[in-house]
Design goal:
Shape: elongated
Largest sheet: 5 strands, mixed
Strand order of the largest sheet: 9-10-11-12-13
Helix content: 40-55%
Mean pLDDT: 87
Number of domains: 3
Number of helices: 14
Order of helices and strands: HEHHEEHEHEEEEHHHHHEEEHEHHHE
């Protein structure tokens, strides 16, 4: 009696050829016919209860094609996208003739693909996956949601230092006609300047209408026991602006952390204005007016501001 789970190995999927060496070709066909094994791709099997597991399907896809996870599938493997798509994206050299299927999307390329391991999966590099995803998201009539996914992946990758802006720009040299190249270069310039999220980018665009000096992005403030970075700051008047995305403030602990940060800054005489996604997208003029008014008040008398009501960290518009 064979233990099928053990025969499949740590990847929980393998080829029928490998199984036949461990048991017999007749046994493998019997297990498939009885439903004990299911085919994910021609010649590649797993247990029925593992057939919908994304990691199992990714291992089967790369094993079946001898290719690399790419595009959004590579970004999932690299931990830059949280929700994997239904189909697995794999990139192969152009001479390969493996075809796409319902759960497998084949991309062929003339460009060499550097191979890396991400969570034990053979994949393209982060920079290559970002550029490929951007390319795919800006071809034809793609949804705005796909474009947002590509944009957020770039920002997350640079924010988490999984890739540098220079790495992505180097990858772009091989695709001078990339769809959406201009907005991607603009996004990379914003990431290099310190923007870490789409909310920050929208907020900083709004600040351009405030008539204030350009703020310093991701400005570090020495607390004595460590350095705290704020999204945008005017250190000459000790004014900081933070943009609070819902994804990063969905738990009570996040709000408590922000209160502690703001209290530490207030003790040093800083004003912190916080703005949410709704603030920035639905009432940017109100945000700009509040920032401009606070800046001008701070310019009147910075030393007194530390003990005034404005010296307390303040939330953005209600």
């Amino acid at each position: 009696m064979h233990d099928l789970a053990a025969l499949l190995g740590p990847r929980r999927t393998t080829s029928e050829f490998v199984l036949a060496r461990e048991a017999s070709a007749r046994s493998v066909q019997r297990w498939i016919a009885s439903g004990q094994l299911v085919r994910l791709h021609p010649g590649w099997v797993t247990l029925p209860e593992w057939a919908d597991d994304w990691t199992v399907r990714a291992h089967a896809a790369t094993g079946y094609t001898s290719g690399l996870l790419s595009h959004t599938s590579a970004l999932v493997a690299h931990g830059l996208i949280d929700r994997p798509g239904f189909r697995i994206d794999v990139t192969l050299p152009e001479h390969h003739r493996v075809r796409s299927s319902r759960r497998l999307r084949i991309h062929r390329t003339r460009r060499p693909c550097a191979r890396t391991l991400a969570q034990g999966l053979a994949a393209t590099t982060v920079a290559r996956a970002l550029v490929d995803t951007w390319d795919d998201a800006h071809r034809g009539r793609r949804s705005s949601r796909y474009s947002d996914l590509a944009r957020n992946a770039v920002l997350r990758a640079t924010r988490e230092r999984r890739v540098t802006v220079a790495d992505v720009e180097a990858e772009l040299t091989a695709v001078p006609r990339l769809p959406g190249l201009v907005p991607l270069r603009e996004l990379l310039a914003q990431a290099r300047a310190g923007a870490q999220s789409q909310l920050e980018i929208l907020g900083l665009r709004a600040l351009l209408t405030a008539g204030l000096p350009p703020p310093q992005l991701q400005y570090g403030i020495d607390l004595g026991f460590g350095t705290l970075h704020v999204d945008a700051a005017w250190p000459e008047v000790k004014l900081a602006v933070e943009f609070d995305g819902a994804a990063y403030h969905s738990k009570a602990d996040d709000w408590q952390r922000d209160l502690r940060r703001d209290a530490a800054l207030a003790a040093l005489g800083w004003v912190v204005l916080r703005f949410s996604w709704i603030d920035v997208t639905e009432r940017p003029a109100v945000c700009v007016a509040q920032i401009a008014a606070t800046y001008r008040l701070r310019r009147l008398d910075v030393p007194q501001a530390a003990t005034s009501p404005l010296g307390m960290a303040a939330r953005g518009t209600p």
